[in-house]
Amino acid sequence: MQLLKNPDIAGKEYQEGEQLGFWNVREYVLFRDGHVCHHCYGRSKDPVLNVHHLESRRTGGDSPGNLITLCETCHKALHRGEITLKAKRGQSFRAEAFMGIMRWEVLNRLKASHPELEVNNTYGYWTKHARIANGIAKSHCADAFCIA
């Protein structure tokens, strides 16, 4: 997932994610948000801060992109339905994670169901090489053509 967030990542940077140096996700989110409520921006003067899930933890998880800092006053008002938040959930990598898990199963089932066909796995750098070698501009259709 880090490569999707930062295409230039390399080496030890994989081990040094955005939460490096923080005790837990809550501490990171509070720091990221400047220890300020993202609804009232401190106008309530409430010193108690909560980390709120934008999408339920069950469906949205505990990633920082699904969390936001709210003061106790705004947090309670939100749960009573008195206020609504403008903030939206950050980027989700649910589809990418699913494909990372399922790709080998799909490949193996395809090979088993069509033994008469040559079915192989491919990688983006192979596709890129084929596209550049053939002087084809980058597009999803062009990439599909290059690996076919």
TrEMBL record:
| Domain HNH nuclease: from-to ranges | 24-76
Respond yes or no to whether keyword Flavoprotein is given for this record: no
Keywords assigned: Endonuclease, Hydrolase, Nuclease
Entry-linked InterPro entries: HNH, HNH_nuc
The protein's GO terms of the molecular function aspect are: endonuclease activity; nucleic acid binding; zinc ion binding
Q: Which residues form a coiled coil?
A: none
Name of protein? HNH endonuclease domain protein
Q: What is the lineage of its organism?
A: Bacteria, Pseudomonadati, Pseudomonadota, Betaproteobacteria, Burkholderiales
